[in-house]
Design brief:
3 domains; Uridine Diphospho-n-acetylenolpyruvylglucosamine Reductase, domain 3; 344 residues; cell shape; cell cycle; six-stranded antiparallel beta sheet; Uridine Diphospho-n-acetylenolpyruvylglucosamine Reductase, domain 1
Length: 344
């Protein structure tokens, strides 16, 4: 195990922003994770676990403790009749795994293509898009428990999955280090075409699209919205969707709908609850595509993507974040919740 000092973190993030890690360790095996944790405990240091760097914003001062970059690799699979189980190491690139599954005609994650990051981050955030979320296919998650100092296999029902939530980012935040995720995918499956953009894309398609066609369509849609990382595209220096779609009481939604000049997009979210697109709220509050505030801004292609427009600092992004939250709260009595994790 190699312990590095004062390692800049900007290049490890999709924002391209952030100061240095005081100490930096890359772990490519479970034994190296044990060694890294031992170093943290012996030196009485704080710990941050880094995966693909696609859902975080690192402060300008960096992180004062140990950044542990989980870089375990490997994909194992087992065919069991109508399903195939994939045990995937946390450091594997998420899109590489999605492509492998789709190529083998294994369905369940085809609409989750184009999402940047590593496999280990998917259960933490319960990654979802275009009508699918990983909670529907995860069978178990292997973790290192920092409390018991041991490896544990958590069943899906123990992970507390909900919309963009799990025990890993709520009740047990900072307790577990994800090392492997086991997914169960359906063999020879038909794709999920439930999301409005996908339905529109395939409205003139003859018959049901294949998994490959559906996955390709999602990538094209994501690229049109600036939600696909393309080298050289300034709208790609972001963490994707910056705010979660808020779930609000139906009474509050009725008030908003009554005063709105046009129909308010919404989705059912359980009894007495309505989910409202955060992008609509931003737009109505004056934060439109292409909006600029100093060196930070909003993507020209998607209202929800806050971007590093021209050498922005973490403070620049945070200032825009706070301005958006304040104005949406004042206008709609809704406090938006950021998706990216603040580090530092």
């Amino acid at each position: 195990m190699q312990v590095l000092e004062h390692v800049p973190l900007a290049s490890y993030t999709t924002f391209g922003i952030g100061g240095p890690a005081r100490w930096f360790i890359e772990a490519s095996s479970e034994n190296e994770i044990i060694e890294a944790v031992r170093f943290v405990r012996e030196q009485n240091l704080s710990l941050f676990v880094l995966g693909g760097g696609s859902n975080l914003l690192v402060s300008d001062s960096g992180f004062p403790g140990v950044v542990l970059h989980v870089a375990l690799r490997g994909i194992e699979q087992q065919s069991l009749g109508s399903v195939t189980r994939f045990s995937v190491a946390a450091g594997e690139d998420w899109n590489t795994f999605v492509s492998q599954a789709v190529d083998q005609n294994c369905g369940g994650i085809e609409c989750l293509t184009g999402i940047p990051g590593s496999v280990g981050g998917t259960p933490v955030q319960n990654v979802g898009a275009y009508g699918q979320e990983v909670a529907e296919t995860i069978r178990r998650v292997r973790v290192f428990d920092l409390q018991t100092q041991s490896f544990v296999d958590l069943k899906a029902q123990e992970c507390g999955f909900a919309y963009r939530r799990s025990i890993f980012n709520t009740s047990s935040r900072n307790r577990y280090i994800v090392t492997h995720v086991e997914y169960e995918l359906k063999n020879n499956a038909s794709p999920v075409v439930s999301y409005i953009d996908l339905k529109r894309y395939f409205q003139d398609h003859d018959g049901l699209p294949t998994l490959t066609e559906a996955s390709s369509a999602v990538r094209k849609i994501r690229q049109s919205k600036g939600m696909l990382i393309v080298p050289g595209d300034p709208d790609c220096r972001s963490a994707g969707s910056f705010f979660k779609n808020p779930v609000i009481p139906s009474g509050l939604f009725a008030q908003i709908a009554e005063s709105a000049e046009s129909e308010v997009p919404n989705y059912p979210a359980g009894e007495g609850q309505v989910k409202v697109p955060a992008a609509w709220l931003l737009d109505q509050a004056g934060f439109h595509k292409g909006y600029t505030m100093g060196k930070a801004g909003i993507s020209r292609k998607h209202t929800l993507a806050l971007i590093n427009r021209d050498g922005a600092s973490a403070s620049d992004i945070a200032a825009l974040r706070d301005a958006i939250i304040a104005k949406v709260a004042a206008k709609f009595e809704i406090r938006l919740e950021p998706e990216p994790v603040w580090v530092g």
